[in-house]
Design brief:
- The chain is an alpha+beta fold and 67 residues long.
- The chain has a domain of 43 residues.
- The chain is built from one helix and three strands; from the N terminus they run αβββ.
- The chain has a three-stranded antiparallel beta sheet, with no helix packed on it.
- It starts with a helix and ends in an 8-residue tail after the last strand.
- The model has no long low-confidence stretch (mean pLDDT 77).
C-alpha cells in the first residue's frame, strides 16, 4: 500500500514539474530597413544582397510601424 502511494506521488510530482518548465522567451525581432523577400530574417539598414540567396534586399513597407 505504501509503495502504491509513493509511486502515485512520484508520478504526480513528475507530471507537475514537466508542465511547469521555464517560460520561453522570444528574442526581439530587429526591424531592418531593407530585407530579402525570400528570407525576411535577413536584412540590413542599407541596400545590399541576401547572404543566403544573393537577391537584392528591398526596402520594407513601414506603413505597419505607424500603428
Amino acid at each position: 500500500m505504501i509503495k502504491n502511494i509513493t509511486a502515485g506521488l512520484a508520478f504526480a510530482l513528475l507530471g507537475l514539474t514537466a508542465c511547469s518548465g521555464p517560460a520561453e522567451k522570444k528574442a526581439p525581432v530587429k526591424k531592418y530597413k531593407y530585407v530579402c523577400t525570400m528570407h525576411p530574417e535577413i536584412g540590413a539598414d542599407k541596400p545590399g544582397t541576401c547572404s543566403k540567396c544573393g537577391m537584392d534586399l528591398v526596402e520594407r513597407d513601414t506603413t505597419e510601424d505607424a500603428k
